[in-house]
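Chain particulars:
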Amino acid sequence: MTEVHKGEVVRVVGSSSEWQGSRGMVIEVIDRKHSDGDDKVQECAIEFGGERRWFMVEHLVKVVPTNMVRFFRAEAIERWHLDTDRANDLDGRRDQLIVSCKMSGVFQSAARQPKPMNSFARWMRRFDVRHRC
């Protein structure tokens, strides 16, 4: 089971709710035991622009906050000289950045210089957010 915490940004998925696909912030979490066993179940209050709705945690996925995605894109453009159009497709996922860097030739030039690759690895660890989009 995925656990969410107060203050995290999530997206509604796997639900027939009118809120499907909407992003919001977790403002309250209730942990309780499942009725047929010892499994823990989470119910979360999510705020969508002033409105509060409750969802079971299995209908939510964590997402990278929008301001972090903008920062991630700006860093990729500045640090690895990615094309702006290519960087605009980045959503904060590590694997996506690696593919973009490969397509732009960043790894070929960095292979001749080991120091930038170490810098790349350190930088990516800072943004290794565990989420599904």
